[in-house]
C-alpha cells in the first residue's frame, strides 16, 4: 500500500518542485469537477465475473444488487465443460451512465472431473487483458473509446455448507488471485444459523490465508473511507441472500424471501450482509476496483506477456535496451523462424512431389510391362492362328489337288469306257 | 486480423446491450465521488509554455494567471533580462494547492524567441523540446516494467504572445503557429492590450482570425475535436473571441473601495479582471477554470498519439507483425480453425 501511495501521488519532495502559496483564488480547484464531467460524458464501464456452482444464486444476486431484471437463463447441470456467458447492459442512475458487463460461469462444479474447471475462467480473463494489450500496442489506437472488458471484480460464490471451502474453491481462487480482484461471498446465507456463520467465516478466511490466496482488500489509504473499509474487511466473506420478490413487512414492501417460519429480509443487516456487499462493491470501491485491475493485474499480465516474447528493459549488462532494439532483434528472429518454416514446408512439399512422382513412374512402368506382356501374348496367339491357317490352307490345297486328280481320273476312266463301248459297237 | 480479437469480437457480438431500467436506488452515482477523491489524492500536473519576444509581459501574465510568482523571472535570483543569442528553454515547477486540490505547475519559458536579427528557424528548439517530452513519455509507456503513473512533462498548452501592433500577423507569427499548431495546442493572446482601443482591438482580432484561417493554422480549441453539440457551441463562442487581448499585473489598487488587480496610469486604472477593460478573465477561465482538463486530454489523446504513430512508423515497429499469436498457438486455447499462421 505504501508503494502505491508514492507511485500515484505527485512526489512533493521532487527535486526542484517547491510549494508556492497563492495570493488569491485562481480557480483550478474545479479540476476534479472538470475531470468528473468528462467522465460523465464518456460513461463508465464495470465488469463483474460471478463464479459459482449452478443454482447457487449468481443471477439472482446480480438482479438484487442492481435492482433490475437481467436476462437470465436457467442452466442445466449437464454441461460437459465450464463455459462463460457474458452480457452487457447500459444502466443509468441520475447522470451517470454505466456500461455493466455481467459474466457468469455456466456448469461450474457440475462435471465429474473438475480438474480443468478453472481453465475457461482464467482464459476468459486473459483474453480480455490480451484484447486491451493488443489495442494498446496498435499503431493507430483509440484507447479512450475502447470498451474496456477487463474483469474488475470477481464474486466467488461459496456453497453454504457451514464447514469449509471445497478444494475446487481453493484451486480456482488460487489460480485467479493474481489476475483479478476476488471478493468471496457465502451464497444462500439464509441456510446457515448465525453462530455457524461466524465459525464458517473464520474457517474460510483462515483456509484462504493458509493456502496463500490473495483476496481483494478494501483500500485503507484514503482517510475518508479507511474506517468503513477496515470494518468491512473484517466481515469478509459477505454472507448474502438474493431476492427480487417483495414481501410486505410492517407497512413497507421489502425485498425478501418468505418462509413458513419467517421472512428473510435482503436489506436487513441483521439478516445478511447484502447491504455491506452493495456498499463495498458499488458505492465505495468501484473506482478502486477498476484502478487495481488496470494498474496491478493488467500491468502484471502485460509484463509477463512482453517478457515471454523476449522484451526486456535492460540487456544482460544492465544497460537500458530500447524497445526498438528488442523489437528489431525479435523481428529478425521471427523472420528467420518464418523463413525456416517456409523452407521446411517447401522441402516437405518437394519431397512429397518426388515421392508421388516415383509412385506414378512405378505405376507407369508396371502398366507398360503389362502392355508389353499382353502384346506378346497377342502376337503369340496371332502366330499360332496364322500357323493354323497355313495348315488349313495347305490342307485345303492338297485336298483340292487330290480332288482335281480324282476328277481327272474319273474323267479319264469315263472316256476310256466310252472308247471301249465305241469299239464294241463297231 | 488477430485470433484473439476475432474470438473477443465474437463474444461481444453474442451479447446484446440494452438499456435497463433500475427499479430503485443502487448507488452507481457514488462513483463520481470516488473518482473525485482519487484525483484529489493523486494530484494533477499541468505544463504551460509561453512563447513570445522579450518585453511582451509573458512572465507577468503567468504570474497573474496563477496569482503567485511562478515564472522563472520571479524565481531565479539575480535574474537579468539579457537578450539570448539563441532560443533557450527553461522550465520551472511549483506545487500549488487550492481547496485541497494539488497541482504541479510547470512553466516553460522561451527566452530569445523572436529577439534575434535573423529569426529563421527560431521555432526549432521549441519543436525539439516538445517532441522530446513526447519521446520521454513514449519510452516510459513502452517499458516492460513501467511506473504506475507515468510522469507527464508534455506541453499541455502553448501561449503565444502577439504584440499589439493593431495590424496583422507577422511572418514569424505565421511560421511559428503553422508549425507548432500541428504538435501542440496553441492559445494566441494579444499582449499588452492596453495600447489598443476597443475598436482597434476588435479589428485587430478580426484580421488575425482571417490570417489564421487563410494560413491553415490550427489553434485551440480545434474544431475537429468537438465531441458533441454542446461542446461545439461552447467552443465556437471561444473561437469567435480568440485571440484574447490581455493585460497582466501583480499590483493591486483601490477602485471604488475594492482591492483590484490593475495597472495604474495617468489616465486611469486598467482593471485586469474587469471584462470591460481586457479579456484576461476569459483567458483565465478558459485555461484554468473550464478547459484545463480538456487541454490535457487533447494533448494526450491527439497530439501525443500523432507523435506516437509517426515514431512507430518511422522505426517500423508493428507489434501485430510479431504477432502475439505464437503464444496463442502454443497454448492451443483458441479455435484452431481461426489460426492464420
Automatic annotation (TrEMBL), chain A:
PROSITE patterns: G_SEPTIN. Keywords: Coiled coil, GTP-binding, Nucleotide-binding. GO terms for molecular function: GTP binding. Residues 42-308 form the Septin-type G domain. Residues 346-373 form a coiled coil. The keyword Transport does not apply. InterPro entries: G_SEPTIN_dom (IPR030379), P-loop_NTPase (IPR027417), Septin (IPR016491). SUPFAM superfamilies: P-loop containing nucleoside triphosphate hydrolases. PANTHER family: SEPTIN. Belongs to the TRAFAC class TrmE-Era-EngA-EngB-Septin-like GTPase superfamily. Septin GTPase family. This is Septin. The gene is septin10.
UniProtKB/TrEMBL annotation, chain B:
SUPFAM superfamilies: P-loop containing nucleoside triphosphate hydrolases (SSF52540). Gene3D superfamilies: P-loop containing nucleotide triphosphate hydrolases. GO terms for molecular function: GTP binding. It comes from Echeneis naucrates (Live sharksucker). InterPro entries: G_SEPTIN_dom, P-loop_NTPase, Septin, Small_GTP-bd. This is Neuronal-specific septin-3-like. Keywords: Cell cycle, Cell division, Cytoplasm, Cytoskeleton, GTP-binding, Nucleotide-binding. The lineage of its organism: Eukaryota, Metazoa, Chordata, Craniata, Vertebrata. The gene is septin12. GO terms for cellular component: cytoskeleton. It is found in: Cytoplasm, Cytoskeleton.
Amino acid at each position: 500500500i505504501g508503494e502505491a501511495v508514492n507511485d500515484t501521488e505527485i512526489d512533493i519532495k521532487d527535486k526542484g518542485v517547491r510549494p508556492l502559496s497563492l495570493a488569491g483564488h485562481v480557480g483550478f480547484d474545479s479540476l476534479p469537477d472538470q475531470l468528473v464531467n468528462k467522465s460523465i460524458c464518456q460513461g463508465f464501464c464495470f465488469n463483474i465475473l460471478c463464479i459459482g456452482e449452478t443454482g447457487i444464486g449468481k443471477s439472482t444476486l446480480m438482479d438484487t444488487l442492481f435492482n433490475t431484471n437481467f436476462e437470465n437463463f436457467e442452466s442445466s447441470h449437464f454441461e460437459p465443460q465450464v463455459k462463460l456467458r457474458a452480457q452487457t447492459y447500459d444502466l443509468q442512475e441520475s447522470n451517470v451512465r454505466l456500461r455493466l458487463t455481467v459474466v457468469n460461469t455456466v456448469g461450474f462444479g457440475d462435471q465429474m472431473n473438475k480438474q480443468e474447471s478453472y481453465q475457461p475462467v482464467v482464459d476468459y480473463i486473459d483474453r480480455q487483458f490480451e484484447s486491451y494489450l493488443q489495442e494498446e500496442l496498435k499503431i493507430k489506437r483509440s484507447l479512450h473509446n475502447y470498451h474496456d472488458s477487463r474483469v474488475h471484480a470477481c464474486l466467488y460464490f461459496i456453497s453454504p455448507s457451514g464447514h469449509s471451502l471445497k478444494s475446487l474453491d481453493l484451486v480456482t481462487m488460487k489460480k485467479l488471485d493474481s489476475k483479478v480482484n476476488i471478493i468471496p461471498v457465502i451464497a444462500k446465507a439464509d441456510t446457515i444459523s448465525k453462530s455457524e456463520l461466524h465459525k464458517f467465516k473464520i474457517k474460510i478466511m483462515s483456509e484462504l490465508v493458509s493456502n496463500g490466496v490473495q483476496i481483494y482488500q478494501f483500500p485503507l489509504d484514503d482517510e475518508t473511507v479507511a474506517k468503513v473499509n477496515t470494518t468491512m474487511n473484517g466481515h469478509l466473506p459477505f454472507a448474502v441472500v438474493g431476492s427480487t420478490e417483495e414481501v410486505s413487512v410492517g407497512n413497507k414492501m421489502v425485498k425478501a424471501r418468505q418462509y413458513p417460519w419467517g421472512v428473510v429480509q435482503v436489506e436487513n443487516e441483521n439478516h445478511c450482509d447484502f447491504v455491506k456487499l452493495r456498499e463495498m462493491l458499488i458505492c465505495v470501491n468501484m473506482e478502486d476496483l477498476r484502478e487495481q485491475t488496470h494498474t496491478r493485474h493488467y500491468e502484471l499480465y502485460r509484463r509477463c506477456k512482453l517478457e515471454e516474447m523476449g522484451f526486456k528493459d535492460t540487456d544482460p549488462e544492465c544497460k537500458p535496451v530500447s524497445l526498438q532494439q528488442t523489437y528489431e532483434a525479435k523481428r529478425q528472429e521471427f523472420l528467420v523462424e518464418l523463413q525456416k518454416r517456409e523452407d521446411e514446408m517447401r522441402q516437405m512439399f518437394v519431397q512429397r512431389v518426388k515421392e508421388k512422382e516415383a509412385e506414378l513412374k512405378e505405376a507407369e512402368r508396371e502398366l507398360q510391362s503389362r502392355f508389353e506382356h499382353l502384346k506378346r501374348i497377342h502376337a503369340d496367339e496371332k502366330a499360332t492362328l496364322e500357323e493354323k491357317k497355313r495348315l488349313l490352307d495347305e490342307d485345303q490345297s492338297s485336298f483340292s489337288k487330290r480332288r482335281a486328280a480324282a476328277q481327272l481320273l474319273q474323267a479319264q476312266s469315263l472316256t476310256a469306257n466310252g472308247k471301249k463301248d465305241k469299239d464294241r459297237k463297231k | 486480423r488477430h485470433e484473439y480479437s476475432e474470438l473477443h469480437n465474437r463474444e461481444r457480438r453474442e451479447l446484446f446491450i440494452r438499456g435497463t431500467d433500475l427499479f430503485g436506488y443502487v448507488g452507481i452515482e457514488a462513483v463520481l465521488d470516488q473518482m473525485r477523491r482519487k484525483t484529489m489524492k493523486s494530484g494533477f500536473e499541468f505544463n504551460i509554455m509561453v512563447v513570445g519576444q522579450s518585453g511582451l509581459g509573458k512572465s507577468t501574465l503567468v504570474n497573474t494567471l496563477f496569482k503567485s510568482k511562478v515564472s522563472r523571472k520571479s524565481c531565479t535570483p539575480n535574474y537579468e533580462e539579457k537578450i539570448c543569442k539563441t532560443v533557450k528553454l527553461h522550465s520551472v515547477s511549483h506545487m500549488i494547492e487550492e481547496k485541497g486540490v494539488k497541482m504541479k505547475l510547470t512553466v516553460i519559458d522561451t527566452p530569445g524567441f523572436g529577439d534575434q536579427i535573423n529569426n529563421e528557424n527560431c521555432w526549432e528548439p521549441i519543436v525539439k523540446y516538445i517532441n522530446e517530452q513526447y519521446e520521454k513519455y513514449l519510452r516510459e509507456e513502452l517499458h516492460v516494467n513501467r511506473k504506475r503513473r507515468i510522469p507527464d512533462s508534455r506541453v499541455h498548452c502553448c501561449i503565444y504572445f502577439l504584440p499589439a501592433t493593431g495590424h496583422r500577423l507577422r511572418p514569424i507569427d505565421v511560421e511559428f503557429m503553422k508549425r507548432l499548431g500541428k504538435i501542440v495546442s496553441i492559445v494566441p493572446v494579444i499582449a499588452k492590450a492596453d495600447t489598443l482601443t476597443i475598436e482597434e482591438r476588435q479589428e485587430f482580432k478580426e484580421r488575425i482570425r482571417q490570417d489564421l484561417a487563410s494560413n491553415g493554422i490550427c489553434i485551440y480549441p480545434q474544431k475537429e475535436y468537438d465531441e458533441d453539440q454542446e461542446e461545439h457551441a461552447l467552443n465556437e463562442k471561444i473561437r469567435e473571441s480568440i485571440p484574447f487581448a490581455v493585460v497582466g499585473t501583480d499590483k493591486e489598487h483601490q477602485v471604488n473601495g475594492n482591492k483590484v488587480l490593475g495597472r495604474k496610469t495617468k489616465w486611469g486604472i486598467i482593471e485586469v479582471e474587469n471584462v470591460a477593460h481586457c479579456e484576461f478573465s476569459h483567458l483565465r477561465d478558459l485555461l484554468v477554470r473550464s478547459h484545463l482538463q480538456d487541454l490535457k486530454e487533447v494533448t494526450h489523446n491527439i497530439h501525443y498519439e500523432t507523435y506516437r504513430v509517426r515514431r512507430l512508423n518511422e522505426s517500423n515497429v508493428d507489434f501485430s507483425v510479431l504477432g502475439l499469436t505464437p503464444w496463442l498457438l502454443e497454448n492451443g486455447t483458441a479455435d484452431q480453425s481461426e489460426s492464420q499462421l
